[in-house]
Design brief:
The structure is a single chain. It is built from 23 helices and 21 strands. The termini are far apart. The protein has 3 domains: 167 residues, Dimethylsulfoxide Reductase, domain 2 (3-Layer(aba) Sandwich); 190 residues, Rossmann fold (3-Layer(aba) Sandwich); 137 residues, Beta Barrel (Barwin-like endoglucanases). A 6-stranded mixed beta barrel has the order 16-20-17-19-18-21. The protein is 34% helix and 16% strand. Strand 12 and strand 13 form a beta hairpin. Bound molecules: ligand MGD (2 copies) and molybdenum atom. The site of one ligand MGD has 28 residues, from helix 2, helix 9 and strand 16.
Length: 564
C-alpha cells in the first residue's frame, strides 16, 4: 500500500511511543530484543494491547488482552475502523491529503458494528471500542504484527486490514508512529533487501524494469530474465507438475518446515536432483543427492545482517568453521567456476561495495560508516548524510508534488480459515513458537536446559476436563492430512476449543504432518495458524505398543493405567 516492504519505524521510536498494539505477535518469546525496547515504553507509561487467541506471556505485560477467535482479525480491524469513523476520530486532514479510496472504505466497514464484530471475534464490544478510541486518540502509536496475521490463507488481506487503521488515524510517516512487521530470522529483512525474493533485484528493484535490468546486466555481464520467479510454495506445486525437477536449498529445512509434510516428502523424493547446503545434516539434507557443508554466517564469516528496523549491522568472524565447512560465498564462487564463470575472490566488504553501487537504498553505507554509527537504517542514499529513522514521511508533505502517490485504503473482506471445524475435527490447532527453541530445532536441538520440555499439545483447562485428559498424558492428534502422538500440557492461557503445538521438535513429533497447505495467493505463505484437529486418548494396546518401542516409559504407562 506504500510501495515498499519494510517496517516503518525504529526501535527508539517504539520506546518513545504512547501506545503499542502487538497484533498476532508473541514478541516476549519470539523477538525478545524488540520486546525489551517495548517494555521501556510500557515502563514509561505507554499503553500495550495484545491481540492473540492465546493469553501469551507477552499478554502478561498488556493493559488489555484481546483473545479473538483464530482467523477473525479482519472483522476486528474493520470494526475498529468503523468505530473510529463513527466517533469522529478519523484524521480527516491526513485522509484527504495522503490517501485514496476513503469513501468506498467507509461504506465497506458499515456492516461491522461493535456487536457484529464481538459475535464473530469473541472480543467484547466494549473492549473493541476502547481499543479504537485509544489508538485514534494517541499522539504516537505503533502497530506491530507477525505470524498471527501473516500465516493465513488471506495473509495479505490481513496485513492490509491493519494498514487501513494507520491511514485512518495518520499513525504512519512521522516520528514515534508506525507499522512494524517484525522480521522472523536475524537477517530475513537483509535476505529480501539483497534480492532473495522472486520478483526483485537487490534494493527492491523490479526485474520487470528494463533500466534496472540493464544496470545489473552491465555490472554482472548477465542477462537477467524480466519475468518474476516462483515463491517457495509455488515451487512445491511445480514439483507436482514435473515442471521443477532440480532444487538447490541453501539454509532452509523444508522437509520439516513446510505445511503437510507427507506431501513435502513425496515431492522432495520425487526430484531428479536435490542439493542441500547447510551447517547441519538436516532431514532435508538426508534426502539430497549432494550435501555442501557450509560455515555459519553469523559467527564463522564476515558480513552484514539487517534487522526489523532496517538497520544494517556488521557481523564479524568469531570462530573458525569446523574442518570441511566453507563460507556460503566460497561454495557459490567455486560452483560458478565449474559452470565456466570466473568470479574473482572477493572479501565480504568488496561484495558489499558492489551492492552499494547497484542499490540506491544502501549507497551511503560504507563499512567505515556502519562502524561509526553502530549500524545504519535504510534508506541511506549518500555518504554525507543520514535519512529520518522512519519511512513514508512524504505522506505528510504540504507540497502535493513532494507527497507522491496517495496510499490506497483496502476494503478487504472477511474469510474464515480453509480447514473448517466439524464434528470429526472440532478443535482449532494453532502452531507457533517458544522462547527456548528455534524453528525446526536444527540449531537448538542439542542443548540441555530446564526451560525445555519437548513437544507438547497445549490445551486449556476446559478442554482437558471435557476430554478427560490429565497433563502429561500421551494422546493422538489427527487432522485431515495426518496424525501424531504427543504428550498433553495444561496452559491456562488457552480458551475452550483452542490447542497449540510448535514446529520445534519434528524428530519427536512432526507437527507439519497435521498442517494444511492452503496458501495466500499473493504472499504464498501457508495457513500454519489454523488447522482443524481431533484429540483421542490411546487405547491400552496402543500404549503397550508405544512402550515396547520405548516411546513411553513403562512406569509412566503404569501410572497412566492407575489414573484411568
Ligand atoms: N524463540 C524463538 N524466537 C523466534 C523463532 C523461534 O523459532 N524461536 N522464530 C523466528 C521466526 S522465523 C519468526 S517468523 C518469528 C515469529 O514470531 P511470532 O509471530 O511472534 O511467533 P508465533 O508463535 O509463530 O505466532 C505468534 C502468535 O500468533 C498467534 N495467532 C495464531 N493465530 C492467530 C490469529 O488468527 N490472529 C491473531 N491475531 N493471532 C494469532 C499465536 O497464538 C501466537 O502467539 O519468530 C522468530 N523468533
Ligand atoms: N507448523 C508450523 N510450521 C512453520 C511455521 C509455523 O509457525 N508453524 N513457521 C514457518 C516460518 S515463519 C519459518 S521462517 C520456517 C522456518 O523454516 P526453515 O528455515 O526451514 O527452518 P530453520 O530451522 O530455521 O532452518 C534453517 C536452516 O539453515 C541452516 N543455517 C543456519 N545458518 C546457516 C548458514 O550460515 N549457511 C547455511 N548454508 N545454512 C545455515 C540451519 O542449520 C537450518 O538447517 O518454518 C515455517 N514452518
Ligand atoms: Mo519465519
Amino acid at each position: 500500500m506504500f510501495g515498499a516492504g519494510g517496517g516503518t519505524s525504529s526501535y527508539q521510536e517504539v520506546e518513545d511511543t504512547d501506545l503499542v498494539i502487538l497484533w498476532g505477535s508473541n514478541a516476549r518469546e519470539t523477538h525478545p530484543i524488540f520486546f525489551h525496547h517495548l517494555l521501556k515504553a510500557v515502563h514509561r507509561g505507554a499503553r500495550l494491547y495484545v491481540i492473540d487467541p492465546r493469553r501469551t506471556t507477552s499478554a502478561q505485560w498488556a493493559d488489555q488482552w484481546l483473545g479473538l477467535n483464530v482467523g477473525t482479525d479482519i472483522p476486528l480491524a474493520l470494526a475498529v475502523a468503523r468505530e473510529i469513523i463513527h466517533s469522529g476520530l478519523a484524521n480527516q486532514a491526513f485522509i484527504d491529503r495522503a490517501t485514496s479510496g476513503y469513501e468506498e472504505f467507509a461504506a465497506h466497514v458499515e456492516p461491522w458494528t461493535l456487536e457484529a464484530a464481538a459475535l464473530e471475534t469473541g472480543v467484547p464490544a466494549e473492549v473493541i471500542k476502547e481499543l479504537a478510541h485509544n489508538y485514534a486518540r494517541a499522539d504516537r502509536a505503533q502497530l506491530c504484527w507477525t505470524l498471527g496475521i501473516t500465516e493465513h490463507h488471506n495473509a495479505t488481506d490481513n496485513v492490509r486490514a491493519l494498514i487501513n487503521l494507520s491511514l485512518l488515524t495518520g499513525h504512519v510517516g512521522k516520528y514515534g508512529s508506525g507499522l512494524n512487521p517484525l522480521r522472523g530470522q536475524n537477517n530475513v529483512q537483509g535476505g529480501g533487501d539483497m534480492g532473495a525474493i522472486p520478483n526483485r533485484l537487490p534494493g527492491f528493484q523490479d526485474t520487470r524494469d528494463d533500466e534496472v535490468r540493464a544496470k545489473f546486466d552491465r555490472m554482472w555481464g548477465s542477462q537477467i530474465p524480466a519475468e518474476h520467479g516462483m515463491h517457495l510454495t509455488q515451487m512445491l506445486e511445480a514439483m507436482d507438475e514435473g515442471e521443477l525437477t532440480s532444487v538447490y536449498v541453501i539454509g532452509e529445512n523444508p522437509m520439516q518446515s513446510e505445511a503437510d509434510s507427507t506431501r513435502t516428502r513425496a515431492r522432495l523424493t520425487g526430484l531428479d536432483h536435490l542439493v542441500v547446503q547447510d551447517i547441519f545434516l538436516t532431514k532435508t539434507a538426508e534426502l539430497a543427492d549432494v550435501v555442501l557443508p557450509a560455515s555459519a554466517a553469523w559467527c564463522e564469516s564476515e558480513g552484514t545482517v539487517t534487522n526489523s528496523e532496517r538497520r544494517v549491522q556488521r557481523v564479524r568472524k568469531a570462530l573458525e568453521a569446523p574442518e570441511g565447512a566453507r563460507d556460503d560465498i566460497d561454495i557459490l564462487r567455486d560452483l560458478a567456476g565449474r559452470l565456466g564463470h570466473d568470479w574473482e575472490a572477493q572479501t565480504a566488504e568488496q561484495v558489499w561495495d558492489e551492492l552499494r553501487a547497484l542499490s540506491p537504498l544502501h549507497a551511503g553505507m560504507s563499512y567505515r560508516r556502519l562502524e561509526e554509527f553502530g549500524g545504519i537504517q535504510w534508506p541511506c542514499y549518500s555518504e554525507d548524510r543520514l535519512e529520518p529513522t522512519y519511512l513514508h514521511g512524504r505522506l505528510w508533505h504540504t507540497d502535493p508534488e513532494q507527497r507522491g502517490t496517495p496510499a490506497p485504503f483496502a476494503p478487504v473482506a472477511h474469510s474464515l480459515p480453509v480447514d473448517v471445524l466439524d464434528d470429526d475435527f472440532p478443535l482449532r490447532l494453532t502452531t507457533g513458537r517458544r522462547l527456548s527453541e528455534y524453528n525446526t530445532g536444527v540449531q537448538t536441538g542439542g542443548y540441555a536446559s530446564p526451560l525445555r520440555r519437548g513437544e507438547t499439545l497445549d490445551l486449556g483447562p476446559e478442554d482437558a476436563e471435557a476430554l478427560g485428559l490429565s497433563p502429561g498424558e500421551v494422546v493422538r492428534v489427527s487432522s485431515r492430512r495426518g496424525a501424531v502422538v504427543v504428550r498433553t500440557h495444561l496452559d491456562h492461557g488457552l480458551r475452550r476449543g483452542l490447542v497449540f503445538m510448535t514446529c520445534h521438535f519434528p524428530d519427536e513429533v512432526d507437527t507439519n504432518a497435521l498442517t494444511i497447505e492452503a496458501t495466500d495467493p499473493i504472499a504464498g505463505t501457508a495457513e500454519y495458524k489454523a488447522t482443524a484437529v481431533r484429540v483421542d486418548r490411546l487405547t491400552a494396546d496402543e500404549l503397550a505398543a508405544l512402550a515396547a518401542e520405548g516411546e513411553v516409559a513403562r512406569d509412566e504407562l503404569a501410572a497412566l493405567a492407575t489414573s484411568e
